[in-house]
Amino acid sequence: MSDFKIENDGHSVRLKWHRLRRQLADPLFSLDVMQMGLAQGASMELDLRVRADGGFVVLHDEDLEGETTGQGRISQKNLKELSDARMRDGDRALTFSEDLALMLQSAHPDALLQFDMKDDYEAIGEKGIAHLAAHFQTMRASVIVSGHCLDLIVAIKEKLPHLLRGIDPTVTLVDIYRQDGLRAVEKSLLADISGATEPDTIYLQWSLLLQAARDGLDMVSLCQSEGKRVDAWTFTLKNPTGGFSDAEWHDFSALMALKPDQITTDEAPATALAWSKRLSD
Description:
By secondary structure, this protein is of the alpha/beta class. The protein is built from 11 helices and 12 strands. It has a single domain, classed as TIM Barrel, CATH 3.20.20.
């Protein structure tokens, strides 16, 4: 059993640590957890917000108040102004892109770190792209850059072609599904896959994958047939110590049967243990 992956019918599925958490009890965007994951070769995700100076800070929200002791819009603060802020969860210093660049130099070669960009290209601009290019040209671990703004992903591709890229068309596909049906979803997904971002990984909500499969479209197989990996997000056990409820087991086993490449979770060790126990019962 591993915190990193689970096996099903000869297929290995990576368990990605959502927001740098092996478990929900971990602090949000924990530097200690990231160091552990980088050393051991885990797949992890963090969120990045652009600073006024073109660098980035590891945070989800656009304002400082929710996650930190600071105040104001992150995009209006430079590195020095942000350095005094602390994470509310655990009274920790913030993590900056400069910190990430140093840590990635000594990471396990199997480690995969997802930079989920929360700002669009207009906000990040050429200054932000130049910052990424200056700091992430050489790394031992793999980095995959994802975001809702396709123009940003294309711009990163042009400046840093060695970085992996991911896209998440879930919101658009849900709307298309509701309005135009499954065939329109398939057409839109194929267009995204073959688009200018040239993505390595397609991020899709796990419940959308299951609903589409029940209605006759295996979106995982469709993406993989085009040479793309699939990340199913975010499946987190409601009772980690108790394992899968019957309803959770029904959904998770159906998801595993689709054979995604990765499942995002806030409870990787508990999910791996619960899977192992169910299979052995």
